[in-house]
Automatic annotation (TrEMBL):
Organism ancestry: Bacteria, Bacillati, Bacillota, Clostridia, Lachnospirales
Cofactor note: Binds 1 zinc ion per subunit.
Ranges of residues in domain Alcohol dehydrogenase iron-type/glycerol dehydrogenase GldA: 12-138
Protein name: Iron-containing alcohol dehydrogenase family protein
CDD domains in the cross-refs: GlyDH-like
Domain of life: Bacteria
Residues that hold glycerol according to the record: 174, 261, 279
Organism expressing this protein natively: Coprococcus comes
Entry keywords, A to Z: Metal-binding, NAD, Oxidoreductase, Zinc
Signal peptide range in chain numbering: none
GO MF term set: metal ion binding; oxidoreductase activity, acting on CH-OH group of donors
Length: 370
């Protein structure tokens, strides 16, 4: 049997509270002129610190631009047409998932060196080789996969610790999902070396969150950058990014997604999700249902307790989805591409049964509290 040829590009990263000091040594070999693109709040939080570090190097910042509103192909094209983008040797992407995904889609497609500066720990966009693309109306369009991630991620824990804590809170939900979705999607298959690595690495998307998550979230709310915070930031931003790269093959998310994400993407049909809730918050709720569908009662209990402890949702009410909207969504979820590679066909009946069990678990909790 002929062995396949394939290439894997893993993320490079630096982490710490003074990590922008590494900008010169890391970036100078890629050119001289820098364009900084990011979200408004992200640039307010990080630009001065980035500029102070760049001023100590041979690099020169020639522009600072807002990325836009959503990660759409139209936004990417608008940035591509800017003359300052054409002149820049490299781009620094600053912000959360949508800003970094926009900058990645712009630069990696053009083979222009790009570096990420995450300012919140809500997802792994700083380290992974995919951009989540949206339609102009804010609904999910599709994942856009690349052959490589950014050149280097600069993870400043001081800036992340000062960001609103709900981003890390949501990031916890998105991160433990990686372990459960990877292990379920790959079940009973003979896996390639890199996919096996991805599944093995995904365990580190769950364990640190169960161990450090509650204290990290409490510390983050106080603006502290403790050991616990750093462990959770690494799990959210780095480990999930590495697992994601190993779990993606031929630009298809075979093992990289699952039922929790299918639930999220189906629910983006309702504007309240994009307007008032965070990706990982809803995914964390979806994991509870995915574990019940899969019969993993023990793991369900661990995640249920973690969600309760840090306030991640355990009910439809907490994500402002009505019973009728859920009933409608149950017709769409089994058809989503995220569950196309599941080891069994997800059915409406499975979802109904899982929701019933979840409601009973919540009721049991409430009766104990009364």
């Amino acid at each position: 049997m002929k062995l396949e040829n394939y290439e894997v590009h893993l993320p490079n990263y630096s982490i710490g509270d003074a990590i922008y000091d590494k900008i010169g040594p890391v970036c100078e070999s890629y050119g001289k002129t820098v364009l900084v693109i990011g979200g408004k709040r992200a640039l307010d939080a990080a630009f001065d610190k980035i500029k102070a570090a760049v001023d100590q190097t041979n690099l020169e910042i020639i522009g600072k631009e807002l990325y836009g509103k959503d990660c759409t192909y139209q936004t990417v094209e608008k940035l591509r047409r800017m003359s300052v983008y054409q002149k820049a040797d490299m781009v620094f992407g600053v912000g959360g998932g949508k800003a970094l995904d926009t900058v990645k889609c712009l630069c990696i497609t053009d083979d222009k060196p790009v570096f990420s500066f995450p300012t919140i720990a809500s997802n792994c966009s700083a380290c992974t080789s995919v951009s989540i693309m949206y339609n102009e109306d804010g609904t999910f369009l599709k994942p856009n996969f690349f052959v490589r991630p950014v050149m280097h991620a600069f993870i400043d824990t001081e800036i992340i610790a000062k960001a609103p804590s709900q981003y890390m809170w949501a990031g916890i939900g998105d991160t433990y999902a990686k372990y459960y979705e990877a292990t379920i999607s790959s079940r009973d298959e003979r896996l390639e070396h890199f996919t096996s690595l991805g599944v093995a690495v995904s365990l580190m998307c769950r364990n640190p969150l169960l161990e450090y998550g509650p204290k990290a979230f409490a510390d983050h709310k106080k603006g502290l950058c403790t050991y616990d915070v750093e462990q959770v930031v690494l799990a959210i931003v780095v480990t999930t990014g590495i697992a994601s790269i190993f779990l993606t093959k031929d630009f298809t998310p075979d093992y990289n997604s699952g039922l929790a994400h299918a639930i999220f993407y189906a629910l983006t049909k309702y504007p309240v999700i994009e307007q008032r809730h965070l990706h990982g918050e809803v995914v964390g709720f979806g994991v509870l249902l995915a574990l019940l569908v899969d019969g993993q009662e023990e793991e369900f209990e661990k995640i249920y307790q973690l969600n309760r402890e840090i306030g991640l949702p355990v009910s439809l009410k907490e994500i402002e989805i009505t019973e009728d909207e859920w009933k409608e969504s149950m017709g769409h979820i089994p058809k989503m591409s995220d569950v196309a590679h599941y080891p069994y066909k997800v059915t409406r009946e499975m979802l109904e049964d899982a929701m019933q069990k979840l409601k009973e678990r919540v009721r049991k909790d409430q009766s104990h509290e009364e």
